[in-house]
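Action item from last week, closing it out:
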Amino acid sequence: MEQGDYDEPEICKEALHAYKYSNNTSAFFINEKLDLADSHKTPLSRTDLYDDYLLFCKERDLEPGKRHELYAMLKQLGGPHITSRWAKKSTGANDRGFAGIQIKPTNGDPL
């Protein structure tokens, strides 16, 4: 009472964190698989980004969200690091994309 609040146990914080991620696969993907930084100048194609997101969800048996939800969450979490740019898809075709992000290297093990 004197403190005006209570100390939340670490296990409760972790459980809340896991619950939020299970309900927002876009945020989970962004936090686990993307590196957000101004130094990433080469834009990443939206199509390639969404394909990586779908694979991420499939590997973890998660229900993926829609494209626009992923892009909106990316802009929300990435803040000023994320800028819209023209990019090249992995196929070589032009595509809209984002600068300020990079896919983190994988270790081959899904969570």
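Closing note: Strands lie at 34-36, 44-45, 83-88, 94-99, 101-103.
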